[in-house]
Amino acid sequence: MSKRLPRGTWDVVVVGAGPAGAAAARVAAEHGCTVLLVERDGIPRYKTCGGGLVGGSPASLPEGAKVEIHDEVQRVTLSMNGRWERTLPSRPPWAKMVFRSEFDAALVEEAARAGVSVRDQCAVKGVESTEDEVRLRVGSGEYLRARAVVGADGSASRIAKFVDVRCRQVDLALEVEVPVGSRLSKSWSGRALMEWGPFPDSFGWVFPKGDVCTVGVVGSRGSPDATRRYMRDFLERQEVAGIEPIHDSGHLTRCRAADSPLSRGRVLVAGDAAGLVDPWLREGISFALRSGALAGRAGASIAGSERGADVHSEERRYGRAVELGNEMTSSEQVSRIFARHPALVHTALTRVPLVWSRVDDYLTGRATIPEVLSSRLVRPVVSALAALS
User: Could you give the count of Cα atoms lying within 13 Å of 109 in the half-sphere of its Cβ?
Assistant: First the structure.
C-alpha cells in the first residue's frame, strides 16, 4: 500500500462488481488498501449466466458470505440434442444454484464489510496510465485516480481493451429465466440438464432454482442464426416456450488465448475481462472468484510499488499466479475432442460409470479438469478419443 497518496487518489480502483471484482476489491482492502469498487449498473443487477456454483466456486467464497442457495443438483441429465437422455447421480457436495443478482450483491456486501467503498451506476469511459498512477474517466466526466486498477468488467470489458486481451474463442450465449408451475418445478427439483447441441461446440442447459428455471444455449459467435434456432427448439422441448420469461438476454463469452496479457503496467484484468472461462462448458464463476482474489493481492502490491521495475515484477508474479491457464488448456483439449466426437464422448460419460464419476468430481469441486484428465480411469479414454481426432 502506498504511504503517501495525492489527494483524491485511491490505492486500488476495481471496475466491475461481479464475482471477480468483488473478490479483488475485498482482498485488496484486507491487505490494507483504500479501495473503490465501481459498477456500471445499479446493484443488484441481472447478469446473463446459468448461476451454477460448480468446480471450485463454493470453496472460493469468503467465509460468512450470505449467499442464498435456491437448489442443489443431486442428478444430472445428459443428452444429445434431445436424444439418448440419461440421468446420472451426483455425489455431495452438490453443485449449488444461485441467482446472479443476489449472488453478486452478497459478494459486494462482503467487500463493503472489509472496508471497500462502492459506487454503482458509474460507467468507465476511458483509461489513461502513467508510471505512477492510473486515471479512469467515468460517465460524469470526472476522473478517478488510483495507484492500481483491476478490470473485472465482464466479457465486453473496456479495461481488457486497454490491456489488449486476446481471445481464441468467442461464443454467443442466449438465456431466459422462466417461472415454472408446480409440475415442472417438481420435475426439475435437484436435477440439472446438460445437452450437447446440434452443431459443433453448442450445448444447452436447464438449471433449477425453486419455482424458476434458468434455460439457455451456447453456440459459436459465427453461427448466430443456428444458435437462435437451437434456442427456439430447446425451449420447446423443455416445455417452457410459451412462458413469459422474467429475463430474456444474451451475451458473448470469450476464452483467452494462451499468450494473452493479463496486465499492462498498473492495470490488471481478472475473470471474464481476462477471458478466463472454461472453453468446454463456458463456466466462469470459479475462474472469476480465484483470479479476482489473486488480482486483489497483486493490485495491493502494485499500489505500494514506487519503481517501475517493482511494478513489472508484480505483473510477472500475477501472471505466474494465474495458473488457471492449465485448467483452460485441459478443458480446451476436451472441447476439441468433444467437437469431433460428441457421440463417443456422450457414450463414455453415460455408459462408463468411472468416467462420469471423475467428471462429477470436477462439477462438484473435488477435482480440477487437469486432475480429471490425468486420472488412471479417464486418461485411456481421452487418449483413445484424441487418437481418432
Answer: 13
- Name residues whose C-beta falls within 8 Å of residue 350's C-beta, 6 or more positions apart in sequence: 78, 84, 86, 88, 356
Q: pLDDT, tens digit, for every residue of 91-118? A: 998 999 999 999 999 999 999 999 999 9
Distance of CA 147 to the CA centre of its chain: 26
Strands 117-119 and 75-80, by their bridges, are unpaired
The residues that bridge with 75 in the sheet, in sequence order, are: 89, 191
Listed in sequence order, the residues at least 6 apart from 68 whose beta carbon sits closer than 8 Å to its beta carbon are 98, 99, 102, 103, 106
Query: Is the Cβ–Cβ distance between 175 and 216 less than 8 Å?
Result: yes
Q: Are strands 247-256 and 167-179 parallel, antiparallel or unpaired?
A: antiparallel
Alpha carbon 285 to chain centroid, angstroms: 3
The Cα–Cα gap between 246 and 70 comes to 16
Of 284, 364, 386, 296, the C-alpha closest to 327 is: 284
Determine how many CB atoms are found less than 10 A away from the CB of residue 358: 22
Reading the block at residue 7, the C-alpha cell is 489527494
* Residue 20 · residue 292 · CB < 8 Å: yes
**Pairing between β-strand 52-53 and β-strand 95-97 as defined by DSSP bridges:** antiparallel
- The three cell numbers of residue 313 are 515484477
C-beta separation of 34 from 299 below 8 A:
no
In the three-class reduction of DSSP (H, G, I as helix; E, B as strand; rest coil), residue 363 is classed as helix
d(CA 53, CA 95): 6
Q: What is the pLDDT of residues 286-344, one digit of tens each?
A: 999 999 999 999 999 999 999 999 999 999 999 998 866 678 888 888 888 888 888 88
**Cα angle vertex 207, ends 220, 254, to 5°?**
30
How far is Cα of residue 61 from the mean position of the Cα atoms in its chain?
Answer: 14
Sign for the CA dihedral angle at 274, 279, 281, 282 comes to positive
- Measured CA to CA, the distance from residue 260 to residue 11 in angstroms comes to 26
Quickly count: other Cβ atoms within 10 Å of residue 152's Cβ. 33
CA–CA distance, 343 with 348 (Å, rounded to integer): 9
- Quote the cell numbers at residue 46: 441481472
Write phi, then psi, for 237 (nearest 5 degrees): -70, -25
DSSP designation for 60: G
